[in-house]
Input
Amino acid sequence: MEDCIFCRIAKGEMDADIVYSDDRVVAFRDINPQAPVHVLVVPREHLRSAFDLGEEDGELLARIFKVIRRISEDEGIAGTGVRILTNVERGAGQSVFHLHFHVLGGRPMLWPPG
Ligand code: AMP
Output
């Protein structure tokens, strides 16, 4: 997907504040953070959203959640509360159509907000 910004970040063709990288997953800070810690965890493989995941992606998902836990520990939020979310389609707020998990913390993350 040549025009996909998260593919371009994963390939190193576009700058990002990368906090983690391996052969299947890349994580970088959101440019418009909604919390003191706001990292996006994305598979290198282009998938449009969580609804493109199949049973064959079990290992990828396990890897993604392992990375999310590791980043949460590294960022010092693992014990205080972490929101992990992924938006599917525009009505839910998806604006980049490459699967990504928001990892948010560092402030009270109670739900519903307010
Ligand atoms: P969503 O709205 O769930 O699709 O999330 C997309 C997120 O990507 C938003 O929170 C944006 O702030 C973030 N974003 C967009 N472009 C970039 C970029 N070049 N580097 C880092 N984060 C980005």
